[in-house]
Amino acid sequence: MERGVADGALSPGDALPPVRRLADDLGVSPGTVATAYKELRQRGLIVTRGRGGTVVADVPSVASRRPPRVPEGLVDLAGGHPDPRFLPVLRPPATVTPGYGSHRAAPRTAALEEVTRQWFERDGVPARHVTFAHGALDCIARLLSTELRPGDAVAVEDPGFHHLLDLVPALGMRLVPVAVDGEGLVPESLRAALRGGVRAVVCSPRGQCPTGAYFTRSRRDELVAVLRDFPEVLVVEDDHNAEIGGATAYTLAAAGLDRWAQVRTASKHLGIDLRWAGVACDAATLARHDGRMLMTSGWVSHLLQETVAGLFLDGAVRALVADGEAAYTERRTALIDALGAYRIRAVGASGLNVWVPVRDESAVVNGLRTRGWWVAAGARFRIAAPPAVRITASTLAPEEAPRLAADFAEVLGDAQATYGG
User: What is the pLDDT of residues 385-403, one digit of tens each?
Assistant: First the structure.
């Protein structure tokens, strides 16, 4: 079955035979088939939907939704990456003294642990319990795998972070989409997901990918009121744009929930090679995360920790990051305004991207390609949300925005003429 999924003979959503029928067809015991199905679920290849039977997972772990390679000669506005001009030069420690044994007994350096506490406390996030991971997805995967089991449901933003939409099914868990508007998760949609039995919620308080939504104080309070009715559910906030989001933090992590974690990374504002994340969470979540980590990678490299701490404490680096945040805000705003001049609705109140609803993603992507632009089709970011394209505005100079908007308007006109509006 795994080979069938890998080579396309079995497609996402395809129904698998009931255990007893397949056992009869193959001439084996039902227990053998049940064990095989259990292993396939653990590998993230199949999911069981109650009366709906067992089907091939939407994004099996043997598959990959890698973005297409950027064609030569095009302006790349699809990657979701920061402008390298606002990233510091990385300076690892000049000397490394050999040590004896491992760092399992003291996995976190004192300097970076203190910096991390201050980072979270600045935005009102409780920082009594903090730990480290190898990036946001590494942390989220560990949190979900220690709290949930294959077949459990996870509420995610729709549209949302495409790598997360791949990760959850790869863990053998089910995605439950929650609608997003300009203020983030829609409370009514979240309540419906929680009533449906989700065991965890993963969301972003600001700089949401791909829409740029951020929690206002009132929206955060509405979401907290919903979540308090489900105290056993783990709430994971991915605040990956904490330093460059261009929005005030009104976080669920600061609201006193029973089970929670907030993850922050350095890759967006300090550099992609810094595979480090700081995590603040409740005591039980900390114990489960660190217990699993000690049995696997053990700790984040102390060389990396020293590098990150040095960058956080460098005044020149902080000034460079602040300049980047201001530039990203200016560039997002310039593009949204330029599109608005052609009555093209776009959103992107924080973060690095602008989300533009369209009728036909392929027509827009291909049309802009012929005009020298490369943008991302929204299909990678959606479950049930309507079509759109994502434009990364982080490297788009404000003076370039009018030309892109004019080309966008022409593409939409061509699409209407071709497809009848």
Answer: 999 999 999 999 999 999 9
Q: Quick check: 301 and 276 in contact, CB under 8 A?
A: no
| Predicted pLDDT of residue 165 | 93
Q: What share of the chain is helix, strand, coil (3-state, %, to 5)?
A: 45, 15, 40
- State whether residue 26 is helix, strand or coil: helix
Q: Greatest CA separation found in the chain?
A: 71
E-strand spans in 256-314?
A: 260-265, 277-281
Task: Please state, in angstroms and rounded to a whole number, the distance separating the CA atoms of residues 166 and 164.
Answer: 5
Average pLDDT of span 253-259: 96
Its sign, for the CA torsion 139, 266, 119, 210, is negative
**Encoded tokens for 228:** 């308090």
CB proximity list for 30: less than 8 A, separation 6 or greater: 19, 20, 23
pTM of the model: 0.84
Average pLDDT, the chain: 92
Beta bridge partners of 131: 279
Spatial contact of 181 and 158, defined as CB atoms under 8 Å apart:
no
Distance spanning both ends of the chain, measured CA to CA:
43
Q: How confident is the model at residue 62 (pLDDT cuts 50, 70, 90)?
A: low
Which residues have a Cβ under 8 Å from the Cβ of 393 and sit 6 or more positions away? Answer: 77, 328, 331, 332, 334, 335, 348, 352, 353, 354
**289 Ramachandran zone, left/alpha/beta (phi>0; psi -120 to 50):** alpha
In this structure, is the dihedral angle defined by the CA atoms of residues 393, 253, 237 and 82, taken in order, positive or negative? positive
Please give the radius of gyration of the chain, using alpha carbons only, rounded to the nearest integer: 23
Sign of CA pseudo-dihedral 285, 286, 288, 292:
positive
d(CA 324, CA 87): 8
Q: What tokens were used for 10?
A: 């079995």
Strands (E), 11-138: 46-48, 54-56, 75-76, 130-133
For 90-115, how does the pLDDT look when each residue is reduced to its tens digit (9 = 90+)?
988 888 778 788 899 999 999 999 99
Bridging pattern class, strands 153-158 and 174-181: parallel
Bridge partners of 357, per DSSP, are 388
At residue 69 the predicted structure's pLDDT band, cuts being 50, 70 and 90, is confident
Count of residues making up the chain: 421
Strands (E), 189-342: 200-203, 234-238, 260-265, 277-281
